[in-house]
Design brief:
111 residues, alpha+beta, Alpha-Beta Plaits, 4-stranded antiparallel β-sheet, 3 helices, 4 strands, Dimeric_a/b-barrel, DUF1330 domain-containing protein, DUF1330
């Protein structure tokens, strides 16, 4: 089942940003990831969330995400991250082959 990394990014230091964006894409590709969105215009449809830059990456599965994030290759890019940008980063599993999108229980509650 595919897994998706969603990053809400605020660029900070231009030099560090350039180093990070030079290094990160090859690491994503190496671990089977591909960009689905990389910074295009964002329109808030509901609520108060107003992200500046969204990055959406699809990986083959959550194991690939975990391997990428912990990899020595991505560690090189991460060395620039704290200066380059601030962000919120999450991983969410896609819908499996069963096709169900029904939520059986609220997250964090017992059934």
């Amino acid at each position: 089942m595919s897994a998706y990394v969603i990053s809400d990014v605020v660029p900070q230091d231009e030099e560090a940003w350039n180093a990070y964006v030079r290094l990160a894409p090859a690491t994503i590709e190496k671990y089977g990831g591909r960009y689905l969105a990389r910074g295009g215009p964002v329109r808030t449809m509901e609520g108060n969330w107003s992200p500046r830059l969204i990055v959406l990456v699809e990986f083959p599965d959550r194991a690939a995400v975990e391997a990428w994030y912990a990899s020595p290759e991505y560690a090189e890019a991460l060395a620039f991250r704290s200066k380059a940008l601030s962000r919120n980063l999450i991983c969410v599993d896609g819908v499996g082959t069963h096709g169900s999108t029904r939520v059986e229980t609220l997250p964090g509650t017992a059934r």
